[in-house]
What we know:
- The protein has 392 residues and is of the alpha+beta class.
- It is 52% helix and 19% strand.
- It contains 11 helices and 12 strands.
- It has helices at residues 2-62, 81-86, 98-101, 106-117, 156-191, 198-229, 242-252, 254-259, 278-295, 342-347, 354-364; strands at 66-70, 76-79, 119-127, 133-141, 148-154, 237-241, 263-266, 273-277, 301-308, 314-319, 369-374, 378-385.
- A 5-stranded antiparallel beta sheet has the order 2-1-5-4-3, with helices on both faces. It has a 5-stranded mixed beta sheet with strand order 7-9-10-12-11.
- The chain is elongated.
- The chain starts with a helix and ends in a 7-residue tail after the last strand.
- The chain binds adenosine-5'-diphosphate (ADP).
- Adenosine-5'-diphosphate binds next to helix 9 and helix 11.
Amino acid sequence: xxxxxxxxxxxxxxGVHLRWKSRFRRAQxxxxxxxxxxxxxxxxxxxxRDREHIRQQTIFDGMLEGVAILxxxxxxxxxxxxxxxxxxxxxxxxxxxxxxxxxHPDIPRLLERLARDxxxxxxxxxxxxxxxxxxxxxxxxxxxxxxxxxxxxxxxxIKELERMRKExxxxxxxxxRTPLSLIKGFVETLMGGAVTDPVQAQKFLQTIxxxxxxxxxxxxxxxxxxxxxxxxxxxxxxxxxxxxxxxQVIEDLETRARxxxxxxxxxxxxxxxxxxxxxxLQQVFFNLLENAIKYGKVGGTxxxxxxxxxAGGVEVWVKDDGPGIPEESRTRVFERFYRVDRARARxxxxxxxxxxxxxxxxxxxxGEVWVNSEIDKGSTFHFTLPAESEAG
Length: 392
Ligand code: ADP
């Protein structure tokens, strides 16, 4: 009997032991699984954080503005590509004071103002270059934080446009004032009754007339240029005979050429056709030929020629045997109001806008314009016109 009871108890305890052992094992594997899961989640979080960091840095680096975050000591915590490019910084900025990264006299001033006022608005920093760059710095302390957000805007282009606009206004005012004051002077003299000789009075009136014409040309050229620059010109492109277009202009300027005893020769092959706005093309020919006659040699020859280019399109030229253009002026003659010899150019009644108009017309046709010149030998103005298929 006791034997049987002991045997039953033994089996029962073995059974309980085995059951607990398997439960324990299961619990153990459950815990290991949980730990693994936790680890996987942590890894995923870290990856998310990395991805977010890379995303933020990419956005940060894609910004046109130069951005940096500084701590209260002026130490860079992070900066974007534009910031480092603007300030020409090639080394790591993180952990270094901004005035150590950039040696510019305005940077310590900027840090000082940030530390004192907690902000800087519209501070202009000029970097010597080349090329010279104008930056505008704005800094603000981030609220509830010891960090400062510093943003640099590149103002170089805006400043350049501002300078050009001011220069243009000054030039236009000057160009308008000169003939106006001459006109006023002659009118006042005539009104004063001091000129009694009718021949003399007639001369005065002719001078007044000449200067009014100059004002009219100037205003017409200004309007043309402003339309061309403002992109308001729609081209009426058609297949146009090049030689014929040039011939028309030669005839229009015949009297002027005769006055200067200049012989104009049209060497453009008869059959050459271009796909252009004929009226605009004639304006190009007119301005170039008028200059060649005006600035060329008295009794000289002007040639107009053209050839097909290997790459397609045509190259046209207007060649004179005048005094030539000094090398340093050869690109500048296409600028508004630029004149090689100011006194002479004004004397010949020029507006200083003819070549700027030529350049714009050629460019909107998709071509290029340039001048080759040799002092005392002459100048050749060239321009290209794309082939019909290339023209937009
Ligand atoms: P302008 O009305 O003064 O002629 P342009 O823009 O047509 O203005 O020309 C600019 C300047 O370029 C002229 O003032 C002149 O000094 C110079 N220039 C233009 N064409 C010639 C040329 N064929 N030979 C020498 N100088 C020229």
